[in-house]
TrEMBL record:
Gene Ontology MF terms in the entry: single-stranded DNA binding
Gene: Radx_1
Protein name: RADX protein
Pfam families per the UniProt record, alphabetical: RADX
Superkingdom as given in the UniProt entry: Eukaryota
Record-linked InterPro entries: NA-bd_OB-fold (IPR012340), RADX (IPR040893)
Length: 306
């Protein structure tokens, strides 16, 4: 009976120190960020962003330090949380924002919910899905799935979700985060088909905070990638060079991880599953490749074209 909502928080947060509990659903989840530095002695310098929503709209929520190893893996997209003794801060202006699946949803961008071990010590409860009541008015998780046949017409940097059958996965490669830096991004290339085009999705998959999934992407697995960004037209022939890359909020799922995920109700996901049932596994296995070096975008055929 004493719950508040995100819209009310935004209007009243400056005038109060203590806030009523919040009931929200997680719609997006960022990768875990490590911000430790040798000169700063912090036990667990971790941080993760989530986008949470209730019936009034959507707001960012930040999980800090030792709460990250304790809660990060339990807080999945779709999870319902009851939060108490949280703090409200002005939003960090340079944070990335995921593209909401529901374009009509109101976004409260001026403030964010801060979850800490102390000052104040936040109380977090996960509400099991079977106990969630419709009268709470929590929004469902919505997606923006596209098929391969739709991809070539999408603009650069467009945000989308994809599902496909993996036909190629390359070895893990490293790229420097900055020139002369000792920090690296880990990534691998993959191809996935969905039956709507002769061409596969070309996917540049950076290691998210899901090492167990990233290391087990194999040919013939059903791969779901959310919050991917379209990269268009690197050469004169754009249709050959369109690919998708992960964003800060991307989540990756493979066969064995799909059960219970909110996207299993999506129409395009159901269509894909129907298509896979019509395929011969033996024929598809013959077309699959694993490992090796994958130069992309491919260099021209001759030096003259270079």
């Amino acid at each position: 009976s004493k719950l508040t909502n995100l819209g009310h928080l935004e209007m009243t947060w400056r005038s109060r120190m203590h806030f009523h509990p919040l009931l929200v659903r997680i719609l997006h989840k960022s990768r875990l960020r490590y911000y430790g530095k040798p000169e700063k002695k912090m036990d667990m310098p971790y941080q993760a962003y989530f986008e949470v929503a209730d019936g009034s709209g959507m707001m960012s929520m930040v999980l800090w330090n030792s709460l990250c190893p304790e809660w990060y893996h339990s807080m999945k997209v779709g999870t319902v949380l009851l939060l108490d003794k949280y703090a409200i801060k002005t939003s960090y202006p340079f944070k990335t924002h995921p593209t909401p699946g529901d374009s009509q949803m109101k976004r409260f961008a001026t403030i964010e919910i801060s979850l800490n071990v102390r000052d104040p010590p936040t109380e977090i409860s996960i509400i099991p899905e079977e106990m969630v009541k419709p009268e709470w008015g929590l929004p469902e998780v919505k997606y923006r799935f596209i098929t391969r046949s739709e991809l070539d017409d999408l603009p650069n940097n467009h945000s989308c979700d994809v599902i496909g059958l993996v036909t190629f996965v390359g070895r893990a490669e490293r790229a420097r985060k900055r020139e002369h830096s000792e920090d690296f991004w880990l990534y691998r290339w993959a191809h996935a088909i969905d039956g709507t085009s002769d061409q596969p999705f070309i996917l540049e998959l950076f290691a998210t905070s899901q090492p167990d999934v990233f290391e087990r992407i194999h040919p013939m697995t059903y791969l779901v990638c959310t919050q991917m960004r379209v990269i268009q037209g690197l050469t004169e022939n754009p249709s050959r060079t369109v690919y998708l890359t992960t964003s800060n909020e991307s989540q990756i799922f493979i066969t064995g991880w799909h059960k219970g995920q909110p996207y299993t109700k999506d129409a395009k996901v159901k269509n894909f599953i129907q298509w896979t049932k019509s395929q011969s596994e033996a024929d598809q296995i013959k077309k699959t490749v694993i490992g090796g070096y994958y130069p992309f975008p491919r260099p021209p055929d001759s030096f003259l074209k270079y």
